Amino acid sequence: MSEEKMLLEYMEKHNEAFLDMLKEAVKLESPTEGSKTDLEKCRDYFERIFSSIGFNCHVVPSNDSRYGDHLLMEFGEGDEQILFVGHYDTVYEKGTFGSLWEQEGTKISGPGAFDMKGGDVQVYMVIKALKELELLPENKKIVFFLSSDEEAGSPTSHKHYQELAKKSKASFVMEPTFGDCTAGLTTGRYSRGNYTFVAEGSPAHSGQEPEKAKSGLKELAEQAIYLESLTDLEKGVTIACTCLNSGNAGWPTVPGKGELTIDARFSSEKIAEKYDSLFQNLEPFNAGVKITTNGGIEKPTFDEKDPAHKKLYELAKEVGKRFDMNMKGYVGRAGTDGNFTASVGCPTLDGMGMSGDFAHQPGKEYINTEDIAVRGAFVARTVLEVLRMEEELQSEIE
Ligand SMILES: [Zn+2]
């Protein structure tokens, strides 16, 4: 029997077990900034299931009271390792999703089922299958870092991802795929910048002498329109204003001060650098108003054009064909920890997890149960292919 068939049969046979485990993980609600007890319960659950198949698990403290701790899980010994990337936090405050596990036909909704506890359980099933089918090569190490703060931008975990990725042959990011697509993958992600512009002019009485004001509010209103006009979808630039704060509705005053925050996304490092320097030196429209910039690029670009990532994607496409899947790579504007693993030159493939839709939408986020087995078998076979490769994937970029 071919390895593909063995893996697919294994996954199909274990589909119910997969759903039982996912149900338990989803019901342990774990909002990013939720209670420590809740976060710990969810983390403990993952520690328990991964330990049961032979992973050595270590708690890695986040050292930040806002977030839970991370889990570093390692399987096997060897100089060469591959890295799985996952997070157990979700965007939903406890009790805000609605029903925690709702099945309708082939769709199951639940907080974080899609983004991304489904992908986390998938890592378990992939390694369990490879182990039980005796397909795992000797002398290879599998590392799974499960973080607690991804939805907050990975403030305390990104350094761990970068360190681990530097030592890894490839990174597989188990985030859900783009939309409800059986053969979808994510092959690149925009960088993300977050900027706050502080305007300082001078206030004046809004009735008596408004003409004397150097209005911070007017300045920022003009900047908001200008900055959003820099969006260029073809070039790969999006700029969106997310907060404008100036003045007081109860006062007869033209405000001198104000703050404007933007979210900026770029398809390449080169473009990001160009816009970053523009934002760091933003020129005011109005004389007498000064602008100071806070913030910068928070997530580096995961550039799909990088040869190392391309090679991994090509390999995944070949594996996909063996499962009759015509793999399609998407570039996401939203970032993940794949941005961090890619930033240190580690060949990265993202969106390896569940198919489904409506991430971050309470009551709606769902997974497609029909795709679990085939996507699991595909991930297992892709991982095997990388573990068996003699040459380095990243040799082309060094
Ligand atoms: Zn996610």
Task: Give a brief rundown of this model.
This protein is an alpha+beta fold and 398 residues long. Helices cover 34% and strands 25% of the residues.
Number of domains: 2
> What is the CATH first-level class name of the largest domain?
Alpha Beta
The averaged pLDDT comes out at: 96
Low-confidence stretches are none
- Would you report the number of β strands? 18
Structural class: alpha+beta
Strand content: 25-35%
CATH topology of the largest domain: Aminopeptidase
Largest sheet: 6 strands, mixed
Which range best describes the helical content: under 10%, 10-25%, 25-40%, 40-55%, 55-70% or over 70%? 25-40%
Distance between the termini: 39 Å
Give the topology string: H per helix, E per strand: HHHEEEEEHEHEEEEHEEEHEHEHEEEH
The number of distinct helices, counting runs of at least 4 residues, comes to 10
Task: Please tell me the CATH architecture of the largest domain by its name.
Answer: 3-Layer(aba) Sandwich
**Cα radius of gyration in angstroms:** 24 Å
The hetero compounds bound to this protein are: zinc ion
Primary descriptors:
single chain, 398 residues, alpha+beta, Aminopeptidase, Alpha-Beta Plaits, 6-stranded mixed beta sheet, binds zinc ion, Peptidase_M20_dimer, metal-binding, zinc
Tell me about this structure:
- The protein is an alpha+beta fold and 398 residues long.
- It is built from ten helices and 18 strands.
- It has two domains: 3-190 and 301-397, Aminopeptidase, CATH 3.40.630; 191-299, Alpha-Beta Plaits, CATH 3.30.70.360.
- It has helices spanning 3-13, 15-27, 36-52, 113-132, 158-166, 216-229, 269-280, 307-322, 338-343, 372-388, and strands spanning 56-60, 70-75, 80-87, 102-104, 107-109, 140-147, 168-173, 184-189, 191-200, 204-205, 237-245, 253-254, 257-266, 290-299, 328-332, 348-349, 356-357, 366-368.
- It has a six-stranded mixed sheet with strand order 1-2-6-3-7-16, with helices on both faces. Strands 4-5-18-17 form a four-stranded antiparallel sheet, with helices on one face. It has a four-stranded antiparallel sheet with strand order 11-13-9-14, with helices on one face.
- A hairpin with a 2-residue loop joins strand 4 (102-104) and strand 5 (107-109).
- The chain starts with a helix and ends in a 10-residue tail after the last helix.
- The mean pLDDT is 96.
- It binds zinc ion (ZN).
- Residues 87, 115-116, 150, 175, 336 line the site of zinc ion.
- The site of zinc ion has 6 residues, from helix 4.
- Pfam families: M20_dimer, Peptidase_M20.
- This is M20/M25/M40 family metallo-hydrolase.
- It comes from Oceanobacillus locisalsi.
- Residues 188-279 form the Peptidase M20 dimerisation domain.
